[in-house]
Amino acid sequence: MAGARAAGLGQRPAAAQHRTNASNAMSAQPSASACIFCRIVSGDIPGQCVYEDDQVAAFEDIAPQAPVHLLVVPRRHVDSVDALADDPGLLGRVMAAAVAAARARNLAESGYRLVTNHGRDGAQSVAHLHVHVLGGRQLRGQLG
Ligand code: 5GP
Ligand code: ZN
What pTM, to 2 d.p., does this model score? Predict the structure, then answer.
């Protein structure tokens, strides 16, 4: 957990995942109450966050694509990375937390991938900024 602590992240126990239909989760401007990731970070769906601080939280992806697949999100609702041009500080916090989460899962030596998608062509399916932290096996090279 050294990496997570370095980024000021506290650890909370993981719990059973709440299932939702990700294909229905994308909307133009979801209200906080309708946004599944807002509901997770607010605790409305309890027990999801594995790391959190005052601005950022992380939880397990409900449909993991690798042995480690975390989602790191800002606590406040931001549609995607494209909306953070005016807030590089928060973007830095999200990325630093993603690195800390990867280190906390012992991925620093073996390697990992950080991915964030924006909009239709980027195949974003949940309209709350999230950085995927993927690792734990050799990932394939194709990105697009
Ligand atoms: P995107 O395609 O937007 O980059 O990634 C969205 C991710 O959110 C997907 O990997 C999907 O599995 C995950 N996801 C969708 N709904 C939920 C949910 O309710 N809980 C969790 N933990 N992950 C979710
Ligand atoms: Zn949200």
Answer: 0.83
